[in-house]
From TrEMBL:
This is 2-isopropylmalate synthase. Its EC number is 2.3.3.13. Catalyzes the condensation of the acetyl group of acetyl-CoA with 3-methyl-2-oxobutanoate (2-ketoisovalerate) to form 3-carboxy-3-hydroxy-4-methylpentanoate (2-isopropylmalate). Signal peptide: none annotated. It comes from Serratia silvae. SUPFAM superfamilies: Acetyl-CoA synthetase-like, Aldolase. Keywords: Amino-acid biosynthesis, Branched-chain amino acid biosynthesis, Manganese, Transferase. Residues 171-259 form the Pyruvate carboxyltransferase domain. Pfam families: HMGL-like.
């Protein structure tokens, strides 16, 4: 708590260009809470620091001198540190428990000119050739007073850089325990203010910080599906509510359909989810290590953070064959489109060029269909593909048998926009966009690419 107060005070000093009079005028008699029982009057604290700073030796022009601070960390230490900053100097903490010879060596190297001590007990190991200034600060508790902050006003807390004092917005710079302390302090100082917590995941601590803020009593929290947001994102809604529902037994969250919502978010935001994403990632409940598989076969809870059936998922022990053990020179095979949902047989011959059947673990699906007027059927009028949606991007390629790939005519429906295309032609189909096509006439080849090794896994089908 003391270090946090110190950082806050130093940032305040920097923000008004080291003008203590302006700072005292701004803060007046506001109180800074140190813990549940001890409070410090900002005005008195700055006044004490300013008075102490006047006792420092004058530094050479445009230079900063080193001033040591010793004693147990407390309000007096904060006053000393703030006084050093106000005077434009820099400090070093002096641990009086260290041997005198070692302290002498270090302080000489730093050219320390003065040592401050606010402790009632004077330290005994301080080198004799460095002046020791002992001072006292009145730290009697005072009552809280925030008359200028009515409960009807929203409170917005923006942490700045501890190194530069410049604003850095809400970047998730605090550790979880620091987050708990800060928000507990704010709620204590502003008991009638409703806080909302918004934190980014720059250090991978957004969820942990949010949990600590919940424990600190903050009721409103910014989260997003799949944790999407600026830079590294913000707290993930799915991770938070499943944790609250499964670890803390909070029954107000319906987590049944979070996989479907996550899939929709991934498709329409065009931001892919990592397979290792907690809760909703493809590998979240996949166990491939031999030890893990043996344990899961004996006890399904051995390596599961919760029962995946609660979110319409399941445990998988599927293992992919390593690529070095697979044949990478593939033999495509002919297969009717009736194997696919929303498809009928269709004209010509269809060949599976690549999917997970040809390469175990493949992330891609390629098929090629050979069209010829001799192989045309009734689908030239009705089409053999019904409109459908993928949860990933896909591509249509149309190549005729004629010169420069001319000679093929098709009709494509992309998101309700219907166009007749003549080869060569290609169509990019974003995730989440309904589409279909039909052969009209000509000879040539149709190629379909889908960014999923299993075609049916690529279908975006959200049901109630």
């Amino acid at each position: 708590m003391y270090w946090r107060l110190y950082n806050h005070l130093v940032n305040q000093i920097k923000s008004i260009n080291y003008n203590p009079l302006k700072l005292l005028e701004t803060l007046a008699d506001n109180q800074a809470a140190i813990n549940s029982t001890e409070y410090v009057n900002y005005g008195q604290l700055y006044a004490a620091a300013q008075n102490l700073a006047q006792q420092f030796p004058v530094a050479p022009s445009e230079q900063s001198i080193c001033i040591g601070v010793t004693g147990q960390l407390g309000i007096a230490t904060i006053v000393a540190l703030v006084a050093i900053v106000l005077s434009g100097n820099h400090y070093v903490y002096v641990d009086a428990k260290q041997p005198v010879s070692w302290l002498e060596q270090q302080l000489k190297r730093l050219d320390c000119r003065l040592i401050l001590s606010g402790s009632d007990i004077l330290p005994g190991n301080i080198p004799k050739d460095i002046p020791l200034l002992h001072f006292n600060v009145d730290t009697r508790p005072t009552s809280l007073c925030f008359a200028d902050t009515p409960a009807s006003h929203a409170a917005y807390v923006n942490f700045s850089s501890g190194s530069t004092g410049e604003p850095k917005a809400i970047v998730g710079i605090l550790l979880p325990n620091e987050t708990f302390d800060v928000l507990s302090l704010l709620r204590h100082e502003f008991p009638d203010v409703e806080f909302e917590y918004h934190v980014h995941n720059d250090r991978g601590l957004a969820l942990a910080n949010t949990l600590n803020v919940i424990q600190a009593g903050v009721n409103w929290h910014s989260t997003s599906c799949n944790g999407i947001g600026e830079r590294a994102g913000i707290t993930d809604t799915f991770q938070l509510i499943t944790l609250l529902a499964t670890r803390f037994e909070q029954s107000r969250f319906n987590i049944t359909n979070i996989l479907a919502v996550s899939e929709l978010t991934e498709a329409y935001s065009r931001i892919p989810v990592s397979p290792m994403q907690p809760v909703v990632g493809k590998n979240a409940f996949v166990h491939v290590a031999r030890l893990h598989q043996l344990a899961m076969q004996q006890d399904s809870a051995a390596y599961s953070i919760f029962d995946p059936e609660r979110i319409n998922n399941r445990v998988s022990l599927e293992r992919f064959t390593p690529l070095q053990q697979q044949e990478l020179f593939l033999t495509p095979f002919e297969k009717s489109a009736t194997e696919l949902k929303y498809h009928r047989h269709g004209p010509g011959k269809r060949f599976v060029m690549l999917d997970k059947r040809l390469v175990d673990g493949s992330l891609y699906y390629f098929i090629a269909r050979q069209f010829s007027m001799a192989g045309a059927d009734d689908s030239a009028e009705t089409g053999h593909v019904d409109s459908h949606i993928h949860n990933c991007d896909s591509v249509f390629l149309f190549l005729g048998d004629g010169q420069d790939y001319a000679g093929l005519e098709v009709e494509v429906d992309l998101g309700g926009e219907i166009r007749r295309l003549h080869s060569p032609s290609s169509v990019f189909i974003p995730a989440g966009v309904a589409h279909s096509y039909r052969f009209i006439r000509g000879c040539g080849t149709y190629i379909n690419f889908v960014h999923k090794g299993d075609y049916h896994d690529s279908l975006l089908e959200i049901t109630q």
